[in-house]
Amino acid sequence: MQLRKLGRTGVDVSAICLGTMTFGDQTPEDDAFAQMDFARERGINFFDTAEMYASPPKAETQGNTERIIGNWLKARGARDKLVLASKVAGRTRDMKWIRPEENLEGGQVRVSRAQIDYAVEQSLKRLQTDYIDLYQVHWPDRLYRGFGFQTYKDYPQDFIAFEETLDALGRQVAKGNIRHIGVSNESAWGVMRYVAESDTCGLPRIASIQNAYHLLNRRFETGGLAEIALREDVGLLAYSPLAQGVLTGKYLGGARPEGSRGKLYNRLQRYEGPNAAEACARYVNAAQALGLSPVQLALKFVDTRPWVTSTIIGASRLAQLEEDVAAFDLVWTGEMEERVNAIHAAQPDPCP
Ligand SMILES: NC(=O)c1ccc[n+]([C@@H]2O[C@H](COP(=O)([O-])OP(=O)(O)OC[C@H]3O[C@@H](n4cnc5c(N)ncnc54)[C@H](OP(=O)(O)O)[C@@H]3O)[C@@H](O)[C@H]2O)c1
After folding, report:
1. Whose CA is nearest to atom 26 of ligand 1?
2. Which of the four, 133, 177, 189, 274, has the lowest number of CB atoms within 10 Å?
3. What is the pLDDT of residue 270?
4. pTM of this prediction?
5. SS3 of 116, please?
6. In the chain, where are the structural domains located?
7. Which of 91-95, 215-219, 268-272, 306-310 has the lowest mean pLDDT?
């Protein structure tokens, strides 16, 4: 397994990160244990979770994923061999159940010092550990374009200052509860503001950006983030590399296979915009023409981008994980590069 540096932290993380957001809902605990065992055997030392998970977010399953990882850590030990990443929820009115009533501010979840302190404490308990290696802000405290939103307005909404969030995270670093910090679902402006505040205020520096990135959404490359990732050593932890399973081709023609995320939760609207199905079909056909599976083409594409520190793969069951990990053995060729770039040029980013 290839190891890569996590920002400027000196920490080595595997090029594959195990995504866990289905654990505790779609993926039962025994399969989650099997996935974590398999990942560790294959040299994957990097797991990603969040206080909000299991996903899709629901009050009754919130915290399940961290609890399952905690149970596994207790059973298997070797905590120091793992780079464990979690996340604090960003601003929301919709998921108030993440916090006790008295912890909300203006009736909202916010990325404030009090809420970060509460979130870290709860995650540590669920994870049954005394530190988190990488602690990420799951989405910003301000309005942002993510999770498939095409447009937005009203930028000048108030938000918690970057310095305050960094200071709160820095206090957790000083206590030893978290070791490094990162952001997620961030814009180029947000990442640069975080970096600038760290440099001028002597606060911890973000080591990573966890954003969506896959063949149907390459905005990270064109919106300024790829250059920032490379020049500032804030690498991409690419999530949804299979576009939540869409890039396997299994949803083409409106299919909804039994047991799939698309059938169970009906939450694939992000991947159903104009041109999405057509572009997806082109990638699936290109894979076939190259003698590959769609999974190999999609995952290896992400892995071979120089701004990617780690590709966060998700599997709802072990057999998928085995196929996904094997896909990284592929050697990427110039012909593959040309094929995907030709499709991208004709139909760029149909699923932002
Ligand atoms: N920061 C954020 O806001 C954010 C958002 C999303 C994800 N993430 C992180 O990124 C991780 C991965 O995200 P993701 O789950 O969306 O990744 P993904 O790789 O795009 O999608 C994973 C899903 O695709 C399907 N799949 C995977 N391998 C397959 C295979 N070989 N054959 C057929 N279907 C296959 C499975 O769903 P079905 O079995 O249901 O079809 C699986 O659950 C998450 O666990 C989480 O840690 C972060």
Report:
1. 245
2. 274
3. 80
4. 0.96
5. helix
6. 3-248+302-331
7. 268-272
